[in-house]
Amino acid sequence: MSVAWLNTGDNAWQLTAATIVGMQSVPGLVVLYAGIVKKKWAVNSAFMAFYAFAAVMIAWLLWGYNMAFGHQWFSFVGIPGPIASMNDELMQTVFPTSGSTAAMPMATMVYFQFVFAAITLVIMAGAFLGRMSFKAWMIFVPLWLTFSYTVGAFSLWGGGFLSTMGVIDYSGGYVIHLSAGIAGFVGAAVIGPRLARDRENFQPNNVLLMLVGAGILWLGWNGFNGGDPYAASRDAGAAVLNTNVATAMSVLTWTVMDIFYFKKPAVIGAVQGMITGLVAITPAAGVVDGYGAIAIGIASGIIPWISMNIVGKTALFRKVDDTLGVFHTHAVAGVLGGIMVGLLATKEGCKAYGLSNPGGALTDGNWHQVWLQIIGAAFIIALNIVVTYILLKLISLVVPLRMSEEELMIGDDAIHGEEAYAFYGDGERRPVTGD
After folding, report:
1. Which of 122, 163, 312, 390 has a 20 to 30 A CA-CA distance from 185?
2. Could you tell me which residue ranges the Ammonium transporter AmtB-like domain spans (predicted)?
3. Mean pLDDT score, 251-263
4. For residues 253 and 276, what is the distance between their CA atoms, to the nearest angstrom?
5. Is 402 helix (H, G, I), strand (E, B) or coil?
6. Can you tell me the distance from the alpha carbon of 254 to that of 312, in angstroms, rounded to the nearest whole number?
7. Cα–Cα distances in Å, from 317 out to 36, 128, 184, 185, 309?
8. Average pLDDT for residues 295-312, to the nearest whole number?
């Protein structure tokens, strides 16, 4: 049944955008993780991502969405409560704290925001691969969503104090990527490192499968950034184009850096550059022009590269075993992109974003936006350091955070009773003997 407030084109685009963002997690990061780790961790790594996607969905519906986008409880979080009745799902999307609306049903918006929440946990899992207890992960996912993600989302997107200050996070550079990177680093430190033999030799078991996941991630980002105007608008088109321009530039820059430093172009390095480009443009995609996107792409191919390959080799970072370098690819790139918003955002972009006083960025003489972006980053960093540490310490009182020594040695077969690949006839995992 059609209603006056419904724009069918906007609704169709939003559902499409949500679906391809969901595909970034399932199957995108599921298969990327399965391919980029050692064979003995392929199933466990994929399953951590797969589980998080499902667990976030239920928690999001029952209490998470309203904490992130509902009526204000405190200046940084909304009142928890379910959106599960047909009356709720069919009504027009309204963000009660900010007073804004969208021409689509609540059901569409709840699902769209769910896939953003889910991928945050999936990204974070990359820092814990190869040693975190699956049972501890099962408890951690809904708790972190509740006490960290919803706070960041409400503060920046739901009408909370950072949004009223004028901090810009167009599509999740802070809410998603900085959060995942900081929480991943803190969690990696608390959980402890992988076995020494795994840290020393962690060759990917399937680079081509990793590239499949990377490709899904790149193209899925069109929904990630293109869906955040909440309309099939010209702003959506600009955001999609800027996303791909910055990402392509970052891939090229990272590859050149690899050639100069390591003397070889590495496909894993190119994938890292792809991720940092996608992350860095995310807070800026709809508020910068094409030249700004190119500048962000160059910066995201250089600064996170230095962070991962130079700074990441120092004593502190070697002590903390962030398996896939989530801190470098998401936290560093997220902060970089957020600050570059303050440097490169245009007045037209800020106006389209919805700022009441769109002064543009430093290039327009508005140095204050840079300061606002730093404040936003500082809040997200502090929030995730405190919440992640406390949650993991509390969980450790109930279940071990790490796998047992036997599980760490054997991997998937010991944990799940499954292995990623059968190398023998008829699916047997061991050679058939006998008559």
Report:
1. 163
2. 13-421
3. 97
4. 11
5. strand
6. 16
7. 20, 14, 13, 9, 11
8. 97
Q: In this structure, what token pair is assigned to residue 234?
A: 């010209």
Within-domain flag for 429: no
CA distance 42 to 55: 20
Quote the domain boundaries for residue 57: 26-88+106-420
The type of residue at 150 is: T
Q: Per the domain annotation, does 118 fall within a domain?
A: yes
CA dist 369 and 398 (Å) reads 44
pLDDT (average), residues 231-236:
94
Beta strands in 318-375 (DSSP E): none
CATH of the domain at 334: 1.10.3430.10
In a domain, 432, yes or no: no
Mean residue pLDDT of the chain comes to 93
Map tokens 């980002």 to a residue.
221
Residue 95 dihedral angles phi and psi, to the nearest 5°:
-100, 95
How is residue 194 annotated by DSSP? P
- Residue 253 CB-density burial (10 A; 0-12 exposed, 13-18 middle, 19+ buried): buried
Q: What per-residue confidence (pLDDT) applies to 423?
A: 64
Residue reference for tokens 């920046």: 156
Cα–Cα distance, 118 to 51 (Å, whole number): 10
Helices vs. strands in the chain: H and E counts, helices first: 22, 4
Rounded-to-integer distance, Cα 144 and Cα 185, Å: 14
- The yes-or-no verdict on residue 328 having pLDDT over 60 is yes
Strand bridging mode 100-105 / 92-95: antiparallel
100 forms bridges with which residues in the sheet? 95
State how many domains the chain has: 1
Query: In DSSP terms, which residues pair with 93 in a beta bridge?
Result: 102
Give dist(CA 412, CA 190) in Å, integer.
22
Chain segment 28-70, per-residue pLDDT in tens = 999 999 999 999 999 999 999 999 999 999 999 999 999 999 9
Is pLDDT of 401 > 60?
yes
CB atoms within 10 A of CB 230: 23
d(CA 241, CA 409): 46
With tokens 């990793």, the residue in question is 210
CB 95 within 8 A of CB 159: yes
Q: Does residue 100 sit within a domain?
A: no
403 with 397: CB under 8 angstroms? no
Tokens representing residue 376 in the block: 């936003």
